[in-house]
Write a structure and sequence with these properties.
The chain is α/β, with parallel strands linked by helices. The protein is built from 22 helices and 25 strands. The protein folds into 2 domains: 2-274, ATPase, nucleotide binding domain (Nucleotidyltransferase, domain 5), CATH 3.30.420; 281-453 and 487-517, 2-Layer Sandwich (Nucleotidyltransferase, domain 5), CATH 3.30.420. The structure holds D-xylulose.
Length: 517
């Protein structure tokens, strides 16, 4: 059996697979808010941060790992696990002093992880991906490199607030002594693997590319980016590692405590988006994944590592080799829920029958679908911008508002993914709103590409389990064939008669966004 773990914002989950049979043997999870209330983090982070600060308590993640493996050992024979791979929320970082490696190497199974590792924290809390406090640091890094375009050319992304490099720079500037005491910096994902291995495990090219520090051309930390970020940084970072490899063997702590075999292998971790790419069966170019959540994300394996000239999209390493694109849209369900509440509507109004009250393109009623600041495009919207007939502009006619919002969201996604330059053969849609037939058909029509929905809820944990299987000799295409199946009857074909309507809508949308109409 192979084990995949996903350390996400709100929970830590485990998925155990039997690769030859193509079966999921066990699935357990720990919810940080419900299961570890002592950390006062109902949504997985410490509430009340100011100036854009969003941090989490790393001890919560340590306790969660003990709790999760205890639960898993109660339902599965962990001595049968050949290898473990982890996935983690991207960009979050942990800071440890010089005692960390030694502590990792002599973990006592009679005690909890947190009591043994927390004393090595040189920064009590960990900034996570929701943190937006580093605007100044992003500007400083870009300026040191001669402009945002150079940061993007080297690292695959312009300097971004939530990315780890700007976060490290802010720590160095605000707490220079604690930074100087820091001997090891980990990402959430590489930290999870390091606990399991009892030694520091490297950072893979998938998650490493979310730091503004990894040079995508050399796949090593970039000296100019390191220098622009903070002094002495190379020594503090674990080396970048090839994702499909064996990084270590399980620490005796876990073998003794939870019954793992002492030969169980640890595979390098990756970020949750690269891991989902594998879990959604999209490791090779040609399949796009669109995940509809609080924020919407768009990602796909890439033929070539091209970067977004506008600087909104990102390029990460693909754990299966090569690269992947990732584009985040902050106003996902956030905006869908805001409009639903504004209209006093329910989700049925967003489904097939509700959408059938208006027609595709809705005679030119258009909306920039942003209820708050957006990152793609990066702009401080304060509410949706409407263009169309007078009643529509006043916010009347609920069916027209709903269609315009949804069309706006996916036209915006189509527009801002054009830099990738590849036409996909298939879209795999996941996340809460993907169950909605009306939304799924709209995606197929706007992209003029077939859409499939997925049965597996946790694509990131499945991706981790598949990566563990891949790194221990199972062929990825066969694993995808067995595990990455669409839900029965979930495929929707695009309506070709709408291609021209949405070409025109895309032109109109671009003009509205650029203030040209
Ligand atoms: C990606 C990002 C988020 C986190 C969520 O850039 O910030 O998708 O990975 O877990």
């Amino acid at each position: 059996m192979l084990l995949g773990l996903d350390l996400s914002t709100q929970s830590l989950s485990a998925l155990l697979i039997e690769p030859a049979a193509g079966t999921i043997q066990a699935e357990v999870s720990v919810n940080f808010g419900a299961d570890l209330p002592a950390y006062g983090s109902p949504s997985g982070f410490l509430p009340g941060g100011t100036g854009g600060v969003v941090h989490a308590d790393p001890r919560m993640w340590m306790d969660a790992l003990d709790l999760l493996l205890g639960r898993l050992a109660a339902v599965a024979d962990l001595s049968q696990v050949k290898a473990i791979a982890c996935s983690g929320q991207q960009h979050g970082s942990l800071y440890f002093d010089a005692t960390f490696e030694e502590r990792l190497g002599r973990l006592d199974p009679a005690q909890a992880l947190s009591g043994q590792l927390a004393p090595a924290l040189s920064r009590a809390t960990a900034p996570i991906w929701m943190d937006t406090s580093t605007g100044v640091e992003c500007q400083e890094i870009a300026a040191a490199l001669g402009g945002p375009a150079e940061v993007c050319r080297l690292s695959g992304s312009v300097a971004v607030e939530r990315f780890t490099g700007p976060q490290i720079r802010r720590f160095f500037k605000t707490e220079p002594e604690a930074y100087a005491k820091t001997a090891r910096i980990h990402l959430v994902s590489s930290f999870a693997a390091s606990m399991l291995a009892g030694e520091s495990i490297g950072i893979d090219y998938g998650d490493g590319a979310g730091m503004n520090l990894l040079n995508l051309h050399t796949l090593d930390w970039d000296d100019a980016l390191l220098q622009a970020t903070a002094p002495g940084l190379r020594e503090k970072l674990p080396a970048p590692v090839e994702p499909a490899s064996i990084a270590g063997t399980i620490s005796p702590y876990f073998a003794t405590k939870y019954g793992f075999s002492s030969s169980c292998r640890i595979v390098p971790s990756t970020g949750d988006n690269p891991s989902s790419l594998i879990g959604m069966g999209a490791a090779s170019p040609g399949t796009i994944v669109i995940s509809l959540g609080t924020s919407d994300t768009f990602f796909a394996a890439m033929e070539k590592a091209v970067t977004d000239p506008q600087g909104f999209g990102h390029v990460f390493g693909n754990p299966a080799g090569g690269f992947m694109s990732l584009i985040c849209f902050r106003n996902g369900s956030l905006a869908r829920e805001a409009l639903r509440d504004e209209l006093g509507a329910d989700w049925a109004a967003f489904d097939r029958a509700g959408l059938a009250l208006t027609s595709a393109g809705d005679d030119g009623n258009r909306m920039l679908p942003f209820y708050g600041p957006e990152i793609t495009p990066r702009r401080d919207f304060t509410g949706p911008v409407r263009q169309g007939d007078a009643a529509f502009q006043r916010g009347e006619n609920p069916p027209a508002q709903i269609r315009a919002l949804l069309e706006g969201q996916f036209l915006n996604m189509r527009l801002h993914s054009q830099w990738i330059g590849e036409k996909a053969a298939l879209i795999r849609l996941t996340g809460g709103a993907s169950k909605n037939e009306g939304i799924a058909q709209l995606v197929a029509d706007i992209f003029q590409t077939p859409v499939e929905r997925f049965a597996v809820a946790n694509g990131a944990a499945l991706g981790a389990a598949l990566r563990a299987a891949h790194a221990t000799g199972h062929a990825l295409p066969e694993l995808e064939e067995r595990f990455c199946k669409p839900a029965a009857g979930s495929r929707l074909e695009p309506d070709p008669s709408l291609a021209a309507v949405y070409e025109q809508a895309l032109t109109d949308y671009r003009k509205l966004l650029n203030g040209e109409s």
